[in-house]
């Protein structure tokens, strides 16, 4: 309550007026309630991320529109344009990813690649969006590949010989779960050199060529190291058996021939549909390694296009030391060429406690933006400790409702409600995800349309 002025205050004011010649006006005291008196305080809100970029939604506490764009913020508020999205299923990750991509594609200088590892009704989750944009997903399917399906060649001439050898080593290390020893590495290097030297102009070497060289190494290789031919053959036997899986095993047909002609790497959206691959098998990290390196050498170019590389089920990358090392290099390299890497993971514990803890920490450190949807209390505390979230943010993560997340953009932490328009809704909500948010608010629709106008002006 605001009460009358005390005698001491009245004397003090009178003395001050006499001394400095000021005449103070006297107003009668006003008796009011605390609830009404709070109106004298001006509303305040934490500073936003600017008004240029992609509308995400609005801040829960202030009601302000929330706009985020790593390319606009990079170098000023963001040291790196990479982004980590965390949260349990059914809380809105999928809707956020899809609307973010759709809104980014409104800019003329944007291009997106998605590794779609989730599937429904026999197709990937991104099939509907790709169809709406007139894009045909690149479906990597061992069964379809046997009938002239899509192939990506690890020995594609567009990949440097150094990159080819690094990729072959990674495939073998992921499959065996251990680093390639020196003797096996030598045998692989000899086989790769022999194949590279023998390739004819206008043709592509293939994995079968490597397997054949491992089985039947050239005599010059043994002579150069002053070892017996049988030793070189034995050193490469395990390597040949691993690569044979890609040629004549359960992964055959996807990587054992020349790259399929007609893959449009200039399309605004490129979707690799991995939904027909068992996500819990060793095949998934092998696929991600091959696709990642293949894209590094064929897709990322110094053409001033801003690119987004979105990976679902990204723990297959971060949890494998050998694949993580490849992607760590890609992330460092990509920053110079305008690449934003978006990793989508259910639980941070899936990666920080895995075999690639050191590599995972390095990749997480490069992700200056972290979006955390609802998690159980124990998981939220572990996530907060690893990511350095403030205590208040950790405490509210278990209480978040679908569609609301904690956003940490290089220390600027806000609670944000993601907005989905009626136009986007049928494209981003699958049958499984229909419970991710409630019906759209007409006010939210109007806010989005207003911000979209500003967004188009930037483009």
UniProtKB/TrEMBL annotation:
InterPro entries per UniProt: P-loop_NTPase, T4SS_component
Sequence intervals crossing the membrane: none
Polar residues bias: start-end ranges: 449-459
Region (Disordered): 432-459
Domain of life: Bacteria
PANTHER family the record matches: SLR6007 PROTEIN (PTHR30121:SF6), UNCHARACTERIZED PROTEIN YJGR-RELATED (PTHR30121)
Name under which the protein is recorded: ATP/GTP-binding protein
